[in-house]
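Let's sit down with a protein and look at its sequence and fold side by side. We need material for that, and I hope you will provide a protein of your own picking. Once you have written the record down, we can walk along the chain together.

***
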Amino acid sequence: MTRERSGSCRQAEVVVIGAGLSGVATVIALRRAGIDDVVVLEKSDRLGGTWRDNTYPGCGCDVPAMLYEYSFAPHPWSRCFADRSEILDYLRTTASTHRVDEAIRYDTEVLDARWQPAASRWNLQTTAGAYTARAVIVATGPWHRPRLPDIPGLDTFPGPAFHSARWNHDADLTGRRIAVVGTGASAVQFLPEIQPQAAHVDVFQSTPHWVLPKPDYPLPARLHRFLGLHPPARRALRGLHRWTQEAVGLPLRHPRLLRPVEAVARLHLRTSVPDRALRQALTPDYRLGARRLITSDTYYPALGRPNVRLHPTRAAAVEGSHVIGADGTRTRADVIVLATGYHVGDVPLASRLYGTSGTTLARTWADNRRAYLGTSVSGYPNLFLLVGPNLLTGTTAVPTVL
């Protein structure tokens, strides 16, 4: 339990910042190691992190669901690739089962954290008062802040304009003309969902992606009954998923092995997109692996629908109700959806963490973000990062890194 210090400063052995996938796992792991004096500071009013904040249509996991669970908390997933709601329910249930929610202080945003050399402790100022801790674990995920594009005139657009990570559910898309800016992982998921209800969808693509097939299928109850009765079989299936996922990353370290994977992606494009001009616009001109790998069986067919038009150019400006492409094309839109990604390389709190020299982590990392094993940074004692620099690849499931 958290102990009261003199005044209003609360004291804990460990403070964890963030109550998402990482934060929940951290509390459970610390308790298993015999450390019970743990407090989790969460700025929202609910746990869930990425899966709480991202509510766009079609939001789901792009790695097999069995890899998106904690090894100590297996779950009977309904599909090979779980959707957002099932993942969020899983996190809530796991947190409740392991009493993690008892340690969470909601509506508490960390304003800054400073190392105090004399006391060998961290002092944290939050929106709910001060905390002090022997160690701080940063469990804020990389999918935290949307990357908003600098498009001249966007702020004067007369209709709804929003980022996919802040989906406006009050905006009725039925029968509307929608401009989608960006073709990353989020757009790949929500485009097939909004295309049937829209009058027309214009998709602005600055760079085509390599898209691999997504072998999604239901996981029947009888399979889960069998796996429940035979735990070694479940571990073996989970291991198969993991090493299949890791195997995709092998060619990234040995480029000569890329050709077979690229051949699979090209075949997937050719069989999914019969139109030659569209196929050419969707063909990357760089080697696979330079950008995040994407898997989908529905994205290419959605682009081929009569009410969808791909613009192989970036969105350069907005003039009134028109989106202007860098190639000069103009298209009228009622709604603009920005699918322009996140500040993935940033630790959101880096500018608020002050180390032994009084310097922020953001300044320390100004020229080069690096950490020992992606977890500890010199000059910041007892500060530990989850999903720190250089830990994530484009093929690894986050829980296996955690």
Q: What stands out?
A: Residues 231-253 form the longest helix (23 residues). The chain is about 25% helix and 20% strand. The chain has two domains: 3-144+343-401, 154-214+245-338.
